[in-house]
Each structure stands twice: as structure tokens, then as C-alpha cells.
Input
Amino acid sequence: MDMANVESLQELLDTPISLPLQVDLRYNVAVCTECCTGVAFDWMQSHLRNKHGIRKRLDVVMEHLNIEGPTLSSTEVKAWMSEVWVLPNAIKGVPVRAGIACKECQHSAPDITSMMVHFSNRHPDLKTKDNMMKCNI
Ligand SMILES: [Zn+2]
Ligand SMILES: [Zn+2]
Output
């Protein structure tokens, strides 16, 4: 798929760059900090455009994320989410509902119990209460 040339040159000139995307380096997955969901490498541009009205060339997005190679693809992200994440309902077109997210790695969970499990597995040295925030899942 030719992703790099989809956007026009005009959009390249857009500055400054402010994107709600981050990369979780542990999993090599792009995460949308506004939606609290994993975003596959091949979905990044359309996610930014459709969800946030942001049009950026893929290489600009990659530069923002400070990555040189692709993060997880949609197939890999699906496998990753079924293991690591609660599936973001937004992707299936189901209305988002309130959940909680881990400030440390943006992992999201539907309730505090799942989040406590997440903390004991991933961040045993951090307090769940102090390191979570509300989000939509
Ligand atoms: Zn988003
Ligand atoms: Zn976490």
C-alpha cells in the first residue's frame, strides 16, 4: 500500500505539528492519547484524519513519533490488543464509554479491578490510584 504519497504537498507545510499520537516503545505500538486506543501503523493517517481532522503525511507523523520503522500493523495490533488491551469499542463503531487509563503506558481498562491487575503485572512498583486517569474506551 502506498501510504506516503496519499497526502498532498500542501499538508506537508502544516506547522507546528501537534499530534495526539505516542509510541509505546515496549510494544512498538502507536497509541492515540486522546482516544486511549492503540492505532496500527497502517491506520495512523486515517485515524488522525477521521477522528481528529488532522492531515499529515506518514513521514511527518513518523518524525513526530520519533520512529524510523513502522510500528505494529493492523494485524499485529489486533493480536496485541486481544492480549494486552481491552478492545477499544470505538473501532467497531460502538459508542465509547468511560474507562480508566494507565498514565504510565496508556493501557486502558473498563474498571479499577482490571487496572489493578494491570499495575500488578506491569508496574508493580507504582500505585494504581496515583497513576491512572479517566478516558474513553
Ligand atoms: Zn484518536
Ligand atoms: Zn501501564
Notes: The chain has two domains: 3-83, 98-136. The pocket of zinc ion (ligand 2) is lined by residues 102, 104-105, 107, 118, 122-123 (CB under 6 Å). The CA atoms of residues 66 and 107 lie 20 Å apart. Residues 86-95 have pLDDT under 50 and may be disordered.
